[in-house]
Design brief:
alpha+beta, Arc Repressor Mutant, subunit A, 3-stranded mixed sheet, 12 helices, 44% helix, globular
Amino acid sequence: MLGQSLASTFGNRAWGPYAMDRVVHTSVTAEGHSLAAIHQALKGDFKGPTRHMEQGEDAYLITSSMATNPEYQLWEGTRFVEERPVRQAGIAMTDLRRCRKEYLPTVPDGVHFYIPRGRLATLLEQEGERPDYELEVSSADNDQQLYGLALLFLPMLDDTQVAEPAYLSHLASAVSWHMLTRYAGKQTLVNMNAEQLSPSRVKRAKELLSLMPGNGMTIEAIAAECHLPPARFAKAFERTCGTHPLKWARAQRIELSKHRLFATKLSLNEIAYECGFADQSHFTRSFAAATGHTPAVWRQARRGL
């Protein structure tokens, strides 16, 4: 585990002991946030295995269920633990500080978020709030917003979408702030909903966003340039410009790639690199999602070849 964070290794430590023909799991980690999202599912229609972890960790495990099973049960080996019905968009929380007393959950199909307590405290400090809080989650809660965020993680967890660091960072912030505002009574973001960026801040933000990711900038760094905490910056930019800053940046990359496709003879791989995509496959998927056509088809149609 040398050189790896607790978040990035949690999936293997939690569900690695189970045979892959019983429990499957994949994970992505937003290292700047020390937050991991883990997609865990059971294979076959059988009872869910569970166990205690050997050592506590200063983090929460937040679970959003992707499927419904009203008769779901947890078993430790051959011993029945409890019946724990699950429903789609249901939420559960395990305080990993007490994991010797609490069972580590498995679900028929769900996304788990590993969130260090220290990371949540840091977000509050960045907003000028006291870093003391406690999350209070009821097993009876139904959380459609967290479920929606989990769905945004799934393409990256299922390896059908490249996990871009900037996008991953934004989603990690969204999950963290959702937990703080809904389950810890922190209303900072709600109170900032009317905030907009000044024209000079919009200009500076767009200058930096248009160069992503080649300039190595992150949303956090751009927010600092605008003298705002990241979450406030994202909300203010969206209210001012009508779209999230990362969506704006991706749209600019698509427009730049269109110009390169039409006006140059560069290969698709060269255009992908020049416009900041991870590789040609990532470029093709992103371009097709935005335009309805692959780059090659779009280029051929525009050139009349």
